[in-house]
Amino acid sequence: MEALAEIRGLTKVYGNTLAVNNLNLVIPRGRIIGLLGPNGSGKTTLIKMINGLLTPTAGQILINGFAPGPETKARIAYLPERTYLQSGMKVSDLVDFFRDFYADFNRDKAFTMLSALNIPFTAQLKTLSKGTKEKVQLILVMSRDADLFILDEPIAGVDPAARDYILKTIITNYNENASILLSTHLISDIENILDEVIFIREGQVLTHMPVDQIREQYGQSVDAYFRGVFAC
Amino acid sequence: MAWNLSADKPIYSQLVEIIQIQIISGRYKAGDRLPSVRELAAEASVNPNTMQKALAELERNALIITQRTSGRIVTEDTELIQKTQSDLANEYIRNFFHTMKELGYSAEEIVSLVKEMAEKE
Fold first, then answer.
1. B50 interaction partners in chain A (CB closer than 8 Å)
2. What ipTM was assigned to the predicted interfaces of this complex?
3. Domain co-membership, B29 together with B62
4. What is the CATH number of the domain that holds B31?
5. B8 chain-A contacts, CB cut-off 8 A
6. Domain range spanning residue B99?
7. Are A33 and A215 in contact, with CB atoms under 8 Å apart?
8. What is the mean pLDDT of chain A?
9. For residue A187, which of A35, A100, A223, B98 is within the disulfide window of CB 3.0 to 4.6 Å?
């Protein structure tokens, strides 16, 4: 089967700063992939270009054979670092908002997950705690039947029990045509659910390897390996 | 409750060992049907592809058999299960001896320490 996404020679320059530098990457289908790298390594810039929110200075991105645009946005479920939802909206209104927006949105799935995490449907987003807001957004994104899920720091603010639930949700929702790209600093919490990891440094792919290959080759966890590679 | 996995060894080989122990200890008995890959992955909190790889390894060793109609079952060959048990036991003992020798004990000293411990138990 063709790769889900292919990125060639991708470059992004901000003024004098080279944020992404001639980056090449193939994202296969049916994988859960960790996108790891220190602050300022270009993770979010890469993610925004894949989502069509930033225009590359040079290079090419193809998702399902399409350049970023309406066709790819319909197939990518994206959780940004920062919220973009109206804080005055009720949780249930947000669910309907997403259903109107995305043809692949599964309303029942969203309500099932909201109930499992005891999130009140009628509460306005702004009345919820920071962690609960993050859960709501993640549930909305994960309730789509997308080909590519891109989650930028999805578990940073939620409590360990909710984190476990979210990871279980990712595992059980997994489908063999879709992939999940997950950017995070909390590697040790999630490395058991990853197929492979991509290390990014200075806008380039440093390593792209299966988790078990790193453990076999280096005899240490991905977390320990990451700390070694990026030691300050 | 996620399975207890250590950080420095490949995940799939740890899954193989845990499932072997579950079979040896009778959580899954000879001829029992195993849960699906996805159910096992969720229980262990690991990636489904990794669980798939572990089950494939167990199939290669014939401890697990895939049936076309009813999914994966534990082998009915109880001798094979016993052999798996003694293989694992030997491996643990080898590792134990290795660690104890690093601590400076001779084989005879290790045996007598184990005897003492067994009498206290």
1. 192, 195, 211-212
2. 0.77
3. yes
4. 1.10.10.10
5. 215, 219-221, 224
6. 79-120
7. no
8. 91
9. A223
